[in-house]
Amino acid sequence: MLEIQRIRQEKEAIIAGLAKRNIDATSTLDAILETDQNWRAAKTQLDQIAAEMNQLARNIGELFKTGKQAEASALKEQSSLLKTQEAELKEQVSTLEDALQKLLYTLPNVPNDAVVQGRDAADNQNVFEAGTIPQFDFEAQPHWDLAKKYKLIDFELGVKVTGAGFPFYRGKGARLQRALIQFFLDEAIAAGYEEFISPHVVNEASGYGTGQLPDKEGQMYYIKEDDLYMIPTAEVPLTNIYRDVILPGPDFSIKMCGYTPCFRREAGSYGKDVRGLNRLHQFDKVEIVRVEHPDNTAKALDDMIAHVSNLLDKLELPYRILRLCGGDMGFASAMTYDFEVFSAAQEKWLEVSSVSRFDTFQSNRLKLRFKDDKKTTLCHTLNGSALALPRILASLLENHQTANGIAIPKALQSYTGFSVIE
After folding, report:
1. Regions in the chain scoring below 70 on pLDDT
2. DSSP class of residue 30?
3. The three-state (H, E, C) secondary structure of 384-414, written as one string
């Protein structure tokens, strides 16, 4: 959520920044500033009345002490009228505060200066490529055929038991999935991230804290009876650990990681783009999350990008890094880098990770601050997939397939206990 002080001071800069998302925020910002002005005016009146009532209370007390009953009674009538005004103003202030909050929730984050304007993925910037796209002397098979051939994943059984987008992993497919999770966690821990096992459902306040609500309400699974949401990523519970927290000083760098299943209702299209593991309603992911001093945000983002790059290098997968344009970024992001792995059989790039900085957008919602020279300042937050499993597994199967089986990258062999699937 954008800070109201920033909107008061930098309205034109915010309008220019949000134009990178192809949003004309002028009318929304005008409505925010008008509501804010009305709220401040009502709050000032309320404070004045409160001060006047306090003074009257002291005067009434003195009059009663000195036996001036009639004068005290007159002031009590005056105080009673002020109480009526106070109640009306309290309701007005509360109504304006709610209206202001709702307006602020509608605004996405302002893109970083380095982010270019654009409408969709076609306008993203390719900033790095690594690895070699494999060339086969046989006809490469897509991962859904390989999964069926080697009895690794059963999509039909998932449809029977639950529905589309909820596959079963079996045999060496299950072991490979588990190996990837453990590999990603071990690499994160070695990089200084503290591991958490978090809840898989969160309350509404947590959803608002990280920006999933109200923006992605329709994409989240909701448990009506308990008023809880199934998590779309470990980012939500991990970041909310620090909701309503004031860190004691400016010397901090908090690094967290966690494996969770993730639940998203978003898969709704059909065809090869969502076939197999390309898009699921339930999938596994290891997430890395950071809470940083504003001065360290740029370096933290670079460190996270390097961490994900290292994982893909060790998995021997060809990948590229894209800096997303304004129109393709998530609601809460100030800057996002997507990692895409080339799918050899499908002959296209598959997104496997997003690494983002949110600056103060989440921390303002979370009320996550630190003390600095006796004042409190908003922290910065960042997160990234390190990594999401479905498309990584799909890419491993397709890129490491041979005429006789599927080779397992050396970095995973101690985790799987086998070097080839045949």
Report:
1. 266-273
2. H
3. EEEEEHHHHHHHHHHHCECCCCEECCHHHHH
